[in-house]
Here is the input.
Amino acid sequence: MQAAVFLLGTGDLRSDMLKQAIIVFCLLINACLVNSQTCNPNIDFEEGTFKNWVCSAGTVDTSGNLSLINTFPLTTRHTLISSLTGETDHYGLFPVSSPNGSKYCVKLGNDSANAEAERISYTFTIPPDENDYSIIYSYAVVFQEPGHKDYQQPRFTSKVVDVSTNQYIACGSFNFVAASTLPGFQLSGVASSANVFYRTWSSVTVKIVGYQGKTMRLEFTTNDCALGGHFGYAYVDLLSTCNATLITGNTYCGGTQSLTLTGPEGFASYNWFTTDFSTILGNTNTLSLKPIPPVGTGYALELIPYPGLGCTDTLYTSVEAKPDPFIFIVPDTVTGCLPTGLSVAALISPYNSTNILYKFYTDSSEATEVNAGYNIIYNSKFYIRATNPAGCTDVKPVAVQIFPAPDFVVTNPPAIAAPQTVNLQTTVNDPTKTFSFWKDSSATQQINNATAIEQSGVYYIRGTDKNGCSVIEPVKVIISSIVAMPSAFSPNADGKNDVLRLIAKGGIRQLSYFKIFDRWGHLVFSTNNAGSGWDGTFNGKAADTGTYVWMIRATDYAGTVFEKKGTVVLVR
Here is the structure.
């Protein structure tokens, strides 16, 4: 099956409009041509263009009348969006890409709330030998109730038109007018979206019976409120299956232990039957089969739309087999830890067959899909659908257990004076955890001498509990320094005492200066970097042997300021 998502509307968002009533129609329309029907070129946007579609744009007046003219796709009002972005709707928080695997979303309209209206339409002819023709729309609607008169409200309309008579097909045409009382709508939980309501993906079947040879037109239209203060947009997906079945998961490969048949999402209810309709087998959009029935075993799926939104239709499929190997393994339970949680992608076994397409759902009916980057922070169960290139599909559940972050107390050691050292192990006391000691907050540089810290500074302790969960806490060490300088050094490139450096047991927080003068009082070296030293050169040449004077001013981590001077002998 191939699909494309087509979004109805966004534009430049005006901050003052955000404070006003907002309407967002987020429509995911899955137009599926079924039962060996003719392919309509690019009806599903899979070419990544608007080819064969007509784009229109205009306005809505205060009486609710639309004025539209045909136009090229407008960047801010007719926009193709790749489903690879993994975006979610701002208000409904559902993925903008269709769960049917479409490649593109089209955004129709904008959110500038200027009494704008947009439309996309597609014209096609039903073959003369196809008396029973079907289209399926899947949609999701999100809006903020502005409280205007009915004809002034933002709205979304979906229509199927007989071009010859300009008559609408009744079960495929409907009109959503913004209202908080619409059945199936929920209040958005997004803090900045007062009175925003949304309806998650739903579907409609349009049965076009007796129209063989007729030319038809699909129309999808959105408009702002007639007073110009509220806006709407929609995500639209049209899935053209041509000669393919709309029921997936009917094919199994070597290694498959079960099948999960899956019908289109978003209908009010479902009924699975044996092909003679003598036995009902299930009432969700999925049907699990284990053990796998014999090849050729048939099933029928009755799709029942929400009241007033489409026609009841029936899809058929049968069990098929392919020789391709299919290894799909998931653990029974996966654990994670707060505060980071666990990505759903971590639920996948590295031993699975290659080139498998995964989809992740929060429910066994696969109504709510999440992307691979979805972060799990609570105990839950997820369902993973795997599909290989041969079309073999399997669905398996994974339980996720999230443990709380461990808690432990770090006691900063008392300040000491060098050459004393600090034992970091004494700063924690919790027998229920194991501890490791690090130089950095990311725990990438482990401390080798944690029992004898010689330098002041901030160090890090990682505590790990019995569940394998870890937390990293800082510990502050203060050691009053002993600042000194060697009495001699030999810069002869033998690798020993070649550089004259400041000696500071306990560490230096700040070096104001480290200067060296020759016996005539000429400055031959100066730095304020505690890690730098004199290599015995001056102006690029080797300095003479003899006695030199050094001066330092430094502050250690205890806040003690040292000002010292002395002499050093340069020996070659």
Observations:
- DSSP finds one helix and 43 strands in the chain.
- The chain has five domains: 2-240, 251-324, 330-403, 416-479, 481-570.
- Residues 187 and 197 are 4 Å apart (CA to CA).
- Residues 1-36 have pLDDT under 50 and may be disordered.
